[in-house]
Design a protein that fits this description.
By secondary structure, this protein is α+β, with helices and mostly antiparallel strands. The chain is 14% helix and 23% strand. It is built from four helices and 14 strands. Strands 10-11-5-4-3-9-12 form a seven-stranded mixed beta sheet, with no helix packed on it. Helix 2 packs across helix 4.
């Protein structure tokens, strides 16, 4: 074993403060790399799911920037450096936002942990960061709590879900020795904000994944009628919603039908399905050096 590989087994001095009780969740620096159980399509190929902690880990399983985790990095024998071995993304629903010199979010991850996220972009000393645009203050608390902010063209709101690709935990030098996530100025393309709650994303994920399984039987999203063996119409935009006739499709566009476990019309759900479908259609196991995921706004 080379000296490079030796250091991958060193545990962190400060334990990860986050927890994940998911049975198939892998932990930091395991003896053997494990994966969450994944659904399989009719061809026997695994189907990407947001519930798979291997590619969408909770904070309890994220790598740390002062360690090299074999779940995420492998040694390039040619250059002698460690590079990502796969794609991964942290998903956290924004539960709180504050301005403390820089923008600070609190997010809820897949396992229910409260994970702080700090934005370290360019700013004027301790004043208002020039990239933030206008603050929207919460009524009665103008000193720190905010309800909406702009970060590099992305709108951040409580209830939205923050996505960070290649996320790594960091220890902050505050009095509480906080452990969390940080987005620096040169990491703008690694984050994205989805205008949906984490529960909405997971519910949409379950619907899309279920359609890729051999046991799937199409049913009208509006009237819920199953027409097994009979051709059905489907939404030309998301290709997820099925309908037994044009009337159901037209009525479902503007009326709530309960799709994705929400009381929302398909006009709302269609965009949600397309956002989630991007994650599911992505090959998260194939990482090409210098060709990682970059979000464009």
């Amino acid at each position: 074993m080379s000296r490079y590989e030796d250091i991958t087994w060193l545990p962190r001095l400060i334990p990860n403060p986050f927890r994940d009780t998911e049975r198939n969740s892998h932990t930091t620096n395991p003896v053997a790399i494990s994966k969450s159980e994944v659904p399989v399509n009719a061809a026997g190929q695994p189907v990407t799911s947001l519930r798979n902690r291997y590619h969408f880990p909770s904070a309890a399983n994220l790598p740390h920037d002062d360690d090299i985790d074999k779940n995420y990095f492998s040694l390039d024998q040619t250059t002698g450096s460690f590079r990502p071995k796969k794609h991964w993304a942290y998903l956290g629903e924004i539960t709180d936002m504050k301005r403390v010199a820089r923008l600070n979010l609190v997010t809820r991850d897949m396992a229910g942990n409260s994970v702080p996220v700090w934005f370290h972009f360019e700013h004027y000393g301790n004043g208002r960061p020039k990239w933030m645009g206008d603050w929207k203050w919460e009524h009665g608390d103008p000193a720190g709590t905010i309800t909406e902010a702009q970060a590099d063209g992305a709108t951040l709101k409580v209830g939205n879900t923050l996505v960070i690709v290649y996320a790594e935990l960091r220890d902050f030098e505050d009095k509480n020795r906080t452990c969390g996530l940080r987005i620096d100025g040169d990491e703008r393309a690694t984050f994205k904000v989805l205008p949906y709650s984490l529960d909405e994303l997971l519910a949409a994920n379950d619907i899309i994944v279920s359609q890729k399984l051999p046991s799937f039987t199409a049913a009208c999203q509006h009237c819920k009628k199953s027409t097994k063996g009979t051709p059905m119409l489907f939404c030309a935009r998301c290709h997820i919603a099925h309908y037994c006739n044009k009337d159901c499709q037209k009525n479902d566009w503007s009326s709530a039908s309960g799709g994705a476990s929400t009381k929302k019309p398909h006009k709302y759900l269609c965009k949600l399905y397309r956002e989630v479908n991007w994650f599911i259609d992505m090959d998260w196991d194939k990482y090409i050096f210098r060709k990682g995921i970059r979000f464009v706004r």
